[in-house]
Amino acid sequence: SINRFQVMSDAAQVNDSENHKLYDYHHNPPQEAPQRDTLYIAVDFDSVDLLDDALNTIETIGCNFLLFPLVKTQEFRDLRTNPDQEVPFVMYSDKLFNTSSWINQVVGKISTWIDLDSTDNNLRINSELAMKQEAAWSSHLSLPALLTPSPKTLQCSNMGKVLNQLLTPLSNLQFWVPIPVVSDSNPAEGKDPNDIIEDGANASWKTWDLLRTLCDHSKSLSVVLRLGLDVPSFKQFERWTAEPVKALILPVDIFLSDDHGFPTLSSPHQITIRHFLKHDVQLILTGHTDHPEGIGAYHQYLHELHRLSPAPSEQEQFEKPFHDFLQVPLQPLMDNLLSATYETFERDPIKYSQYDKAITVAFSDRFSSNEKGIVMVVGAGRGPLINCCLRACVYLQLDNIDVYAIEKNPNAVVTLKEMNIHRWNNKVKIISTDMRKWNTKIRADILISELLGSFGDNELSPECLDGAQKFLKDDSIVIPSSYTSYIAPVACQKLWMEAKGLNPNEEQKQLETAYVVKFHSFHQIAPSQKCFTFDHPSKTLDEGPQHNTRYSILKFHSVLNETIHGFSGYFDAVLYKNVTLSINPQTFSTGMFSWFPIYFPLRKPIRIPAKSTIEVHFWRNVSTQTNKVWYEWCISSPESTPIHNPNGRSYFIGL
Amino acid sequence: SINRFQVMSDAAQVNDSENHKLYDYHHNPPQEAPQRDTLYIAVDFDSVDLLDDALNTIETIGCNFLLFPLVKTQEFRDLRTNPDQEVPFVMYSDKLFNTSSWINQVVGKISTWIDLDSTDNNLRINSELAMKQEAAWSSHLSLPALLTPSPKTLQCSNMGKVLNQLLTPLSNLQFWVPIPVVSDSNPAEGKDPNDIIEDGANASWKTWDLLRTLCDHSKSLSVVLRLGLDVPSFKQFERWTAEPVKALILPVDIFLSDDHGFPTLSSPHQITIRHFLKHDVQLILTGHTDHPEGIGAYHQYLHELHRLSPAPSEQEQFEKPFHDFLQVPLQPLMDNLLSATYETFERDPIKYSQYDKAITVAFSDRFSSNEKGIVMVVGAGRGPLINCCLRACVYLQLDNIDVYAIEKNPNAVVTLKEMNIHRWNNKVKIISTDMRKWNTKIRADILISELLGSFGDNELSPECLDGAQKFLKDDSIVIPSSYTSYIAPVACQKLWMEAKGLNPNEEQKQLETAYVVKFHSFHQIAPSQKCFTFDHPSKTLDEGPQHNTRYSILKFHSVLNETIHGFSGYFDAVLYKNVTLSINPQTFSTGMFSWFPIYFPLRKPIRIPAKSTIEVHFWRNVSTQTNKVWYEWCISSPESTPIHNPNGRSYFIGL
């Protein structure tokens, strides 16, 4: 049946871009999220003999789509003077397939003689005319994508110019650019920076980087990687993970034979394919085979490879729909959280088991049985930390502890009151107010909160806890006692294009906003580094609200040539003594899913040479006049960007 | 009188930017063009003692404006906790000067203790608060500009952040950033590229380059250069010519004493000051003097220096109002030229004397007396080339030459007919038609035109002459016989900001459009190189309209660190044999004013390291479907820009 077969294409998304909705963080994942682990396999019909039988063949094999030349002859056409080279004389009939097949199953192959960067003027000009002729014809047929000829290494400016002209918003054309994945005999790291530039793997990436920059990072331009007999080490081509890779081209001659004469692949090839299958990458079989079962044998092997891949873990399963899915960070201070959001939070097993540990140790340090004690949970929400406190009291046999729940969201207070009656024996004192506004003479021995965002302080934990500090005694314990945010430079072309394209009229705003996102197709260029730290109770409260401003200068080091699309942000927190939480990759609390990282984009991607120092500046700003907290950021070296988000013009957190 | 004194400020222009009109090329210069050679001198009142008398002093001296501290104490203020550091307690009274003086004569000096990039947190945070406090106060007073503290060399990111916040569209603040002009003991050229970076002159420029990039090239951020005892060679600081330099700061201790004890300056200082006076730069005297006549003596010397500067030539006089003044290139094929435009063209003495020479030599090569001959002037306009032809006939005593004037603009034909009756004895045959459409069996011996634009082919001379080629015999002479365009990379911050700011809603369009402009505040980074050449009669006409497309790859070499803002374009033409016209700087036809260069901007300025190769691509595109000719351009190395103007989306020439 035809409907099974469909090229995975961005065309629909591109058409739909104005309707693309930015979801709030912690909402349910989008219903329309694609099933990402489906295997899509295509066959490249470069042999003209097979054409008549093409569709039959792929249906028999079970392939999803095919690559198909548009023009009957693969020879040079002189379009400058020959009227018999016009569309009606050279193209395959549009009756060859039915309309639905053209639209869903056929990726057009641009004639391979086309050489847009030829130094022969006549060849170049005819190439340009032929390319435009074939693109126009494929538009007419509504093909989902076009495979271009391979660009010449670092000499593809004229190819860029022609593609850029064809990539108009109206054309709806999708181009796939084939780039060979070359293995370097000498790994890049050991060499002089000037030598790196000449490396094959590096040259491949730089060719693509040049081409997509020339085309102004068009969302309709993708790359397909052609594997060879040797697969480079993962280190050598991990940059590709950040790029819009649509497919891997697998020539049949990279396959080996197993004992039964069936096709098989070397272990490095298998690892590469499995890695890219996790990134929505389709597979394209190409080349002539003498195998008695034909191309079907290779197809069968790939299906087997896919079937035998390890099943995703529960966390991977949970996170999959959120991969590279941009969400607006929460603003729990300005907006009241929804019940469903509380629910998602409360479901995290790791986070609350860490709080259990921290609270139990703190209680045992502070309280002895029968002695009176006061504990306040500020921002109690629907009560998960109250549960932790009550569990600790039971465990330590403490009978004389007053537990306060302070919460500003009146809707959550409803739940707290319910819980108090039905679960807590009315032992909890519920205060329905903003912790910054509560006037009381009661002083807490222990103050507990969970106000942290993906970037630590970004949900204004410091400002809230400043307000609660007046409830403290001189020697009170605060949980968490400190938290630190982390920053790392990242390459993430797909994500950056996503952010840029959210609303075509607000590009600047969208590229100066922080997003919560589960990074997937990305490449972290250097290990994360500490950005801002906050300690509680604060010792600088008497310096006024500006004591929560921060300024951090970080220096990262690039190994390869890179393009930076922004920064990934993380945090870790010390709850009490050695009990911690972390979403920083180096120290990640395995199994915890409450926080995805944060993404700070750059307005323009920046090219970074190999082995350079990237100097990054981050500011946390506080204005009590406008009741805003916001971040600004920039790169100052090796080249400078504008400072992003001045005065919080595009993105701020309301106090 | 107060009105004489006024800081030359961009404030008015900034307010007015929406009304800024882009003039068509060859219109009369703008009436409101400022008198650019006026001398503006300020005195820096850094001594608080003088304050009460300040205005009196500058009126007595004859100065134009003064630099004035805003805050009574120049000592550190702790604004984080001290309410007695609020505006009402620290600022000079707004009654010190009257309103008109504040608005026209006072540049505010931000407190010099302010150190926005201090590693001492308390000093940095207080610096930020103090800077904002002083900026807010100067807004309140409507001062024309504020002098900032000097940025720390290459460590001024936080200063950038604060300035960037203050430079909102609403604030209307103008900041002047003082940068010392440092002389290098070893000239940059002889050194290793890595050493150049550490040079003083280079570090000064890089500090400014960093700061203005961080501030996103704000039009309200300018630089003032502080001269020292040693002045660097012109080569070392010619990059500053491309920057928005508002003033030179002249400390009194850089002056020498002449025989009578009066202040004087060394010859390098004089050359520097004269150079910058040609670029709207104001002078600021600073420092304490023991001279018996006080600061007035220095002021008098500067006036004398200015008075004794050589008077501008006639051509300089003519061009002055056009300096850095962006104009839309002519489109004589789509639009009919105005009478005034023809008039400006006809006034050029050099151009037509070159045509006289070329025509006379061609006539004498081709015709002998009494023999019949046919000459066609295509695009005859109001007839200047007809005059050349008739003069040549008289000079060579040729009586039997038929002169045809072919012109598509019916308004110009009216003038031609008038001329024929009153000046040419009805000897000229006037054909009122587009040369591309005239069907005739007459064949010309000599075809003459003047269809060239600033970039040679940019007024579609190639396409027009293709249409006229059918009037030729096999051995006809065409004047001009060839023309070549030239391209050079330029730094021109002021001009780029001008183009960017023409219409805030069409930034992309404005930065993908070519402008005709008399470059003034600019720095050509490398010598120009040949771009496109056209020969007539064309030998490739049978290749169809695409034979006029061109693609050129040029490689330029940078000496210093540079920021490229686009390309200057020029042309030269061979009229006949060795008779040429040129606006290419290397071969400029002195005295010719018909063509100003063309400017191709870049959407974002690109930083180029010292001693790099800049690879530039230019395309000339022709579409007969849309009747358009357009250019596209990009840089592909050392880093890549997007290709500008795809499909002529922002700028094209109509066929």
UniProtKB/TrEMBL annotation, chains A, B:
PANTHER family (alphabetical): PROTEIN ARGININE N-METHYLTRANSFERASE 5 (PTHR10738)
GO biological processes: methylation; regulation of DNA-templated transcription
Domain PRMT5 arginine-N-methyltransferase: start-end pairs: 314-478
Name of the featured protein: Protein arginine N-methyltransferase
Organism of provenance: Hirondellea gigas
Organismal lineage: Eukaryota, Metazoa, Ecdysozoa, Arthropoda, Crustacea
GO cellular component entries: cytosol; nucleus
Family listed: Belongs to the class I-like SAM-binding methyltransferase superfamily.
Keyword entries, A-Z: Methyltransferase, S-adenosyl-L-methionine, Transferase
Chain segments annotated as coiled-coil in the UniProt record: none
Pfam family, one: PRMT5
Binding residues annotated for S-adenosyl-L-methionine, in chain numbering: 342, 351-352, 407, 434-435
GO MF term (any one): protein-arginine N-methyltransferase activity
